[in-house]
Structure formats: C-alpha cells, structure tokens
C-alpha cells in the first residue's frame, strides 16, 4: 500500500522522491531478470484474469442464451445490441440496471464512509493505553477475521422477522417499534445489507488507521497540547493530516471491495435479492445465471468495469495532483 | 495531556457501543450452537434454556464437514503460499528495477482488482474444462483449479502491498550487499526478505483469508470432492429444514482457528499493511 | 543464486504445490468404461442422508452389471448452475437428476440425450411411463430430454387437531373456503396457512396453478411470454391476497425461502400447508402421520370463463443423460435400473413420492392416504408447467415478482390489480 505504487498506477513513472537519493530505483539495465521475476505473476494474471476477461467482453457481443451455450460458434453476433438493451434506461432491463447501480453507489458510499468513521473513531479512542485495550483490539478485529459466509449467515439469523434477535431487542425488549419490521425483504433490506457490510469492513479500517496512528510522532501531540489544543483541535490539526496517506489507500481499497462485493448479498439473500438491496453484482448474477442470458450479463459487467476504471483513475489523478500541489 | 471527564465518558460510551455491535452476533453464534433445533426455530431467547452439544455432534453427519474443512485448509494455505511466492518476485522487480513495461504492469495489476468476478466466471470455467480436455490436467472441479484461481485473486493486492513494503526498505542495504558481491537474488533472499517479514506475513494472511471466504467461484467450480466450506455450509439448509443450530456450531468450529491465527499475527499484519503508506 | 537456480526453485515450489493440491482432485468425468458419475438431487433430510439411501441401490447396480456409479448429491441451490456449467462445457456427470420443470430449458441446450423411441426402448419403452409424467420431460412434439424418476403433486395438508378445535369437519375445497376456515384457524400464535413467500420456484408453481384456474397461460402457443394478461394478474392477486386481504398467512412468511413454512406447519404454527409429498419431512420434524390430513388443492368456487380444473402442476424429478457421456450404454443401463419396478418402489417409498412407472404405481406401498391424494391429483387434475425453453426464466422472474408482492403485502402496502400488473409487465419485459 505504497504511495509510490499509486503513482505508478496512473501509468506515469513517478518522479524520484526528493531527499532520498538512496531510494531511487536502479538505472534501467538491459537485463532479463526483472521480466523473469515478473513472469509467474504475468502468466497467472493473463491466464486467470485478463484472458477470461477478454472472453467475457467477447461474450457481451453475442446473443449467448441456453440455445447457444454449448457451442458458442452458433451464437449470433449482435454487436452492440446487448449494450443497447441494458443501457437503454427506458426499457425494463435498463431501468432495473440503473436502479441497481444507484443502490450500489449508495451502498458503497455509506458502507465505506461509515466503516471509515467507525474504524477511525475506535483507533483514536484506543490510542491511549488503558486496562483491557489489547482485549478490545482483538475483539474489534474478529469480524474481519471471521470467514465471510459465517458472518453473513449469522446476521441473516439475527435478522429473521419472528425469531431473530434484532426484532426481539427492538420490539420485545426496548418497545421501540410496535410492529415487527422485516429486515431481509422490503425497504429495510438495504439497512440490513449495509449493517452486515459495515460490521465486516470497519475492522479493516480500524486496523489500517491504528497502524497509521502508531507512526505519528508523540512530540507532535505534545507540541499541540502545549499550544492548548483540545481533543478536537488535536484530531483536526495533527491526527487527520498525518493519516492522509493511509486514508487515501484505505478508502480506495474499501471502495473497490465493497462495490464488487458479491459474497455478502448472495449469502444474506440467496440468489434473488430484494429490489431495495439489489446490488449490481447480484443483479448481473441473476441476469446471467438465473435467466441464462450471458450476453447481456457480460455487457453489464463490462459497463461496470469501465465505470470502476474511470472512478479509480479519476481518484488517483485527483489525489496525486493535490499532493503534488501541496 | 490529561483526558477531561467528558472525554473519558464519551470514550467509554462509544467503545461500549462498538463492543456491543461486534459482540452480539458472536454471542448469538455461540448461544445458538448450544440450543436444540426446536429452540432456534422459535422466538429468540438470550439464554439457552436447554443447553446441549448435540449440534456439535450432528453437524459432522449432516454434511461432510470434515472433508470441506480439509479442502478449505488445503486450498487456502497452498493458494496463500503460492500467491506470496509469486508476489515476492514480482514486487521485488517492480520495487528495485526500472524496466520497460513497469508502468503497464502496475496498472494492469491494479485494474484486475476491479474485474467483476461474475464477468470471467464462465469463461474461466470453460478455459479450465478445455484445458483439461486438451492436456488431461484436471482444473475444473479439482482443488488445483481452485488454488490457481484464488492465488490470482489475492495476487494484485499482494503485489501492491509488497511493493510498498519493499520500497520502505532502504536501498542502501541491498547496495551494501551487492558491494559484497551478492547477486540480485541473494540480495532478495538475504537482505530484503528478512527485513520484510511483517509485509510477507500480512500478505499471507490476506491471501489465506481471501481464499477461505470466497463463495461464487467455489459454487460453480467444485464438486463434492473438492467443495470448500464457503459453499459446503449451505448444506445445512436442506430440502427438509434449516439446521440453524448446526450452522452456528459449524461456523464456530471453522472460524475459531482462522480468527485465532489472525489475532496471533495481527501485529505483523498491521505493520505490513501500512509500512509503505505511512512512509 | 543464478537465474537458472531461481527458475529451478520456482518450478520446484510450483510442482510441490500442485502435487499436494492434486492429491484431493478426483476425476469429474466418466473415466473408465466401468464408471459413471451421477448427480442426484436432494430429496431427503440432508445430503448425507440421501447418499446413504442411494448407496445400497448403487451397490446393487454394480453387482448386477459391473458398472460402478459415483454419486454426488447436489443441493438444489447449486443444481441448475452446475447443470448449466456441465452443458456448456461438455464436462461433468453422465447421469443427472433434474427438476422436471427445467426439462425444456435444458433440452434447448442440446446437451441431453434425446429419448426417442429407440432410446426409450432401451430403458423399457414409452409405455412403461405414466404419460403425464413423460409429458413433463421435454417440449411437446420433440423426443423427451429425460424420463421421469419421482412423481409429485401439490396437496393441501391440514392439522387435524387444529381443525377439530375450530369445529371444522371437512377440509376446504375452494379458495373461498380456505379463506373462511383460515380466519377461524388464525389466532393465538397460529395462522391459517403457511407459504414460502420468498422462494421464487414455489411462487411460480402456485402462479401456474392459479393461472390455470383463472383460464390464463404464461406462454402463448408460439412460446412467447404472456405474463401480464388479465387472467394472470387475477391469478397472482388471488394467491397473494391470501396474505394481503384474507390475512390467514403470517406476514413473516414473506421472507421464507428455506422451507420454514414446513417447520411452521410441523410445529403447529400454521394449520394448513400447500406442498408436494411432505410426509417424510414432517415425520423428521416429529409430526406423526395421523396428526395431519391430506386433501386436494382447492379450486375457485366460481371459475371464470376458460378456467380449468387444474390444482397442481405435474411435479417431479426426471433423470437425464448427458450427450457427452463416454458410456452412453452404461448410462442408459443405469436409467433403466433406476426406473425398474424394484428401485421405483424402494426409492419412492423412502421419499414419499410416487412412481411414474405404470407397473410400480399399484404397489401397496403407495396406498397411504397422502399418496392416494397425490395419485388422484396426478391422474385427474394436474397439468405440466409450460414446456418451453424459457421456463426456468419464467420461474425466476415471475417467482421474484411474487416475492416482491408478498413483501408489499407483509409490510402493509396495498396489493392492487395495478401493482400486480406492473410487476408482471416488468418481468415480461426482461424476457427476450
């Protein structure tokens, strides 16, 4: 998670960092060695990611339904027809994709934002030593270490309407609600999905921020305290600026993981998520595997991929420029 | 820099709420695992009225949990080790050499992290099958295929993390080694790697957990012999019933080693994760 | 270390890893001439239970023929995906169980062995099979893509004690009566009827029956979807109204997708249940066979013009052979074995289903009241789901639309003709 690789990822060779001449990468030599070192990674990436992805992109140009799945050469080439269909937001399929896309964006923004807030809060509050701190830290990390499906299955058990803990607490014990709400269907399903997602990912934010905090020199705080800075001032003028490099990477990683997350909705809702929580990943799954139309499913995936590439490139450019300006 | 009373109470309140948020699902997992099936199918109770360990006994015969556990362990650990091995070489190259295509490689690696799995699930599956037909190497429905798949899943992020970590190791060290006559690989193994242990551990943990939790590819690419826990646990929901108590018991049993291992290695994980970023 | 040594090291690591990995891989294809791979569907209490039921039969087959059968019981949640993958790749099992509603969809892939008359002759001939069950094994006018293995039909299960307590002497025969007795039965933590509201397949099956009773069709004769016709709107509304307006279904049922409705019925939380051959399951949940009665699924009291006297789909499991099998003869031999009288009696008795084989149907094992009702329904008032390639898509789309309507009903949102039509039109527009 290096700032330097963020540079590279934009496709530009970053300028050598000032002041650290010994860290400058070696001058280019006519050597095969770096390529040999890269070879296993390149071969694997090509074989497992890139080639299948290109095949997937090819699929998006075919009318690949159950009639043709056995022998692709019989599948009619329809060109951009699939794209026209799934991106025509006036048609039912396009409108559903757009809706699902909006749900996903909202979900990602909320999940990443809240995970970051919770993680940062917890890390800052655990900065000062006290009895039981180690125990709390271990506890907070547990949701991240728990395998995805066990965590999500447990939550789906909690969210049952009649026999779940959530309604037991909200309705029977706290009497906050008169009527037992649903969590796994209907409007609340979005909240349920978001809760599970945050439960799973805030510990990761906690972990990263905690590590970032450890690298803030104590004298910065002491100097701030000497100036009479209170908790909030210290947070704003020391902690957050010093965390910036960690946060830049953390937010990007969380964004990509959350946006593409398939495991959480799939385990929580099964193959057909309620429309209020119909994330793009699960929507595409249903469009391809449940309705056996791999052409339009692939078209949706490619559109999604382009979107993610754009957002990421924009994010990297923006954060880089700001740092260069600073 | 003393904490004010208000600050102390705010801290306690917030930490208590977070603790509850984390703890309650974990508690329910444990308490439901020791309830009889009848009780988990009825209104929720905090305390098991008739505690029993039946679920821990029955869960082995409802689904072949032992086999799934072995599969998951083999697949996840081999994938993690291989992924790290591959990532170390790649990250060393990117971190220590300037060469044509370095930028392209970094961009491609980063962008594979964005590929929606659903897009290449079917093509990859067909590639495995055709490769199997052509060469006799069974990748489909075998643990080998799953290992190959998962090791590439964690590869991009692993390389990314390791490049960051390697960058944070002063190059003065390798140059000193080279002055002593060490070749590039001896430099990697004797100088860079020993200094990068936390980074390597972090990446291993990450790769292991990625493989351990994956559901989508496992559901299409495995058969009974190679099925992993992620898919296998769905077997407790049968044509007849959902054996919630057994689901919880099994979840508990398969989670404890992973959680324990993670907590034991978390210090390395933290250090490895952020070394590059905070530099 | 030199470059060469690096290469050797890397190769060694990879080889070691793949060796450990290969230890667990087993051969997914047919393999030698004496081995078949068979994917069975989950019919019993668990995957392992099914395996234990099937294994002795497979051993017997091996004794008789020398052909070894490796069985894998595939959960329903995975089965269709796995079949699709096998069809797409020409890799996988030799013989499979399929839900009979998928027959035409899988037939369209061209991956299944066609049971033309010559092939049927190898497994005992067309006349061996109950015609209605064979009709649900592929598109009309084409050779079936499978043969029936277990036959099922929907029936109305009711809790005898609850009925007696409420002073109800005869099970309801019309939906109006269901609503009426349901209201009497609802109260005190018990509900009149339990449904599987979040399970698309269950919903689609009921949508089919109600549509038949209202004179509707989900596909026209050319195989084009006709989801939002007035008949279908009325049919779906009638079904959802059991919860929305009759209020005899616990709103919680709207989130049921894992057979919780069966548990509710077994535990006395619901007094009636619409299900296929649920006896064995109820027994496993400690509900004795004499605690419940079985009646045919009700009809409309006053069917509209064109309404048909249909109260169940022809449900069941078919057995099919993949064309890619290396041992077509052994595979057909196995199909013949599974549909033989002896196996039909043994397996169907265990699962509580009915043999779709004429010579086994009369066996006394199938004379219990539950099986009588199922038999009667299959013989007189069951119709096959539309055998069109888009059938599995219909189940997904219409079933999901109904799931959403149940969700609306459960949360108190009105379910109107307009909202039903809107959902069905939306579903239809996603077909192509």
UniProtKB/TrEMBL annotation, chain A:
Superkingdom assignment: Bacteria
GO CC field: plasma membrane
Signal sequence region: none
Entry-linked SUPFAM superfamilies: MetI-like
Membrane topology of the entry: Multi-pass membrane protein
Transmembrane regions: 32-55, 105-126, 138-158, 190-213, 242-259, 298-318
Primary localisation category: membrane
GO terms under biological process: transmembrane transport
Alphabetized UniProt keyword annotations: Cell membrane, Membrane, Transmembrane, Transmembrane helix, Transport
Subcellular location: Cell membrane
Similarity comment: family membership: Belongs to the binding-protein-dependent transport system permease family.
Protein name as it appears in the record: Sugar ABC transporter permease
Lineage: Bacteria, Bacillati, Actinomycetota, Actinomycetes, Micromonosporales
From TrEMBL, chain B:
SUPFAM superfamilies per the UniProt record, alphabetical: MetI-like
Membrane topology annotation: Multi-pass membrane protein
Transmembrane segments: 12-30, 68-92, 104-127, 147-166, 187-209, 243-265
Protein localization: Cell membrane
Primary location recorded for the protein, binned into one broad class: membrane
CDD domains (UniProt xref): TM_PBP2
PANTHER family (UniProt xref): INNER MEMBRANE ABC TRANSPORTER PERMEASE PROTEIN YCJP, MALTOSE TRANSPORT SYSTEM PERMEASE-RELATED
Protein name as catalogued: Carbohydrate ABC transporter permease
Natural source organism: Micromonospora carbonacea
UniProtKB/TrEMBL annotation, chain C:
Pfam family, one: SBP_bac_1
Keyword Signal: yes
Region (Disordered): 410-432
Gene3D superfamilies, A to Z: Periplasmic binding protein-like II
Signal peptide: 1-21
Signal recorded as keyword: yes
UniProt entry keywords in alphabetical sequence: Signal
Organism superkingdom: Bacteria
PANTHER family linked to this entry: ARABINOSE-BINDING PROTEIN-RELATED, DIACETYLCHITOBIOSE BINDING PROTEIN DASA
Protein name as it appears in the record: Sugar ABC transporter substrate-binding protein
